[in-house]
């Protein structure tokens, strides 16, 4: 999944996609532990897809530290 594809999704669709990816990732990790996984490279792609969605979510949320004043304090204070 490319970043442009993530950007094209609505917020609700992104949440659903992230949930689906997390569930599938868990199942693949379980298969890896039992030695029954067919394509272990898929784990890498899934982690990256989840990171893309989470990155976009973090960009859209306001920074909680930015709510304070941005004035700098004097060096001697």
From the structure above, extract its key features.
Helix Hairpins; 77 residues; mainly alpha
Walk me through this protein's architecture.
By secondary structure, the protein is an all-alpha fold. The chain has one domain: Helix Hairpins (Orthogonal Bundle), CATH 1.10.287. Helix content is 65%, strand content 0%. It has three helices and no strands. Helix 2 packs antiparallel against helix 3. The longest helix has 24 residues. The termini are far apart. The mean pLDDT is 85.
Brief summary:
The chain is an all-alpha fold. It contains three helices and no strands.
What's the number of domains? 1
Order of helices and strands: HHH
Main structural class: mainly alpha
With helices defined by DSSP (H or I, 4 residues minimum), what is the helix count? 3
Write down the CATH topology: Helix Hairpins
By DSSP, the count of extended strands is: 0
Pick out the low-confidence regions.
none
Helicity range: 55-70%
The CATH architecture classification is Orthogonal Bundle
Strand-residue proportion: under 5%
Kindly provide the name of the CATH class.
Mainly Alpha
Shape: elongated
**Gyration radius, rounded:** 19 Å
Task: Quote the distance from N terminus to C terminus.
Answer: 50 Å
List the helices and strands and how they pair.
Elements: H1 3-8, H2 11-34, H3 41-60
Helix pairs in contact: 2-3
């Amino acid at each position: 999944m490319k970043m442009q594809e993530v950007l094209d999704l609505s917020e609700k669709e992104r949440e659903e996609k992230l949930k689906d990816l997390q569930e599938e990732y868990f199942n693949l990790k379980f298969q890896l532990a039992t030695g029954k996984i067919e394509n272990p490279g898929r784990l890498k792609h899934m982690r990256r897809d989840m990171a893309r969605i989470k990155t976009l979510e973090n960009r859209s949320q306001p920074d909680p530290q930015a709510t304070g004043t941005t004035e700098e304090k004097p060096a001697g204070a």
